[in-house]
Predict the structure.
Amino acid sequence: MKLILLGAPGAGKGTQAETISKELGIPSISTGNILREAIKNGTPTGQKAKRLMDQGQLVPDDVILDIVRERVARADCQNGFILDGVPRTVAQAEGLERLGVCIDRVVSIEIEDAVIEQRMTGRRVCGVCGASYHVTANPPRQDGICDLCGGELVVRKDDKPETVRQRLTVYHNQTEALKGFYENLGKLRLVEGNQPIEAVHRDIMNALR
Ligand code: AP5
Ligand code: MG
């Protein structure tokens, strides 16, 4: 299964990708997490990405396609993978096709902007592995500590309300058009994102059948 999870910032892509990854035994590839790791390590890619990410803008398509090309070539992707947050422009989707990355299914998690703005204030992420939590909707077992790796939970720098609004604008202007792109290929399925995490998961698994 080669799956793309589409959706606005905060729609729940990362949360769902983690569960599906465990259930199907395929890796979840989040370009956001890979870029945050690159920033932490001070790599050239990280230096290019930092200012854009802090402002809620997209990182250039060629940088993203280099990351994906390198990542999907690894052995753990042989039986499939989940792309979380990529592609994010039609140019990236076309780039994936040129790279020969053949996608089976695209699930768009649908949710209104107002719900997202509320959600983001409660998000906490693991500073080590990037796993996503929410103070009320999806709390960790131990306050402030990641269930998966024991890392410290932090507030993401781009979760400030004004940056969230900017990211939503970028989503509507540059990413939402991907729904039409994959609809035309017969690969798109829509899932209602404004319901409990388990219900979203159930609907996504049904959409994969
Ligand atoms: P990225 O890290 O991908 O951020 P994003 O797309 O803005 O999405 P988020 O990670 O914020 O949200 P999510 O959908 O994963 O939601 P989550 O599961 O955490 O990208 C960050 C930046 O990197 C971009 O702005 C850009 O600069 C750059 N970038 C990355 N990829 C790029 C690309 N391909 N091209 C160009 N630039 C790129 O859930 C959110 C919160 O809600 C959590 O607290 C969660 O616990 C909670 N929650 C989840 N589901 C539910 C539910 N059903 N009910 C209640 N709460 C829920
Ligand atoms: Mg995410």
Notes: The mean pLDDT is 96. The radius of gyration is 16 Å.
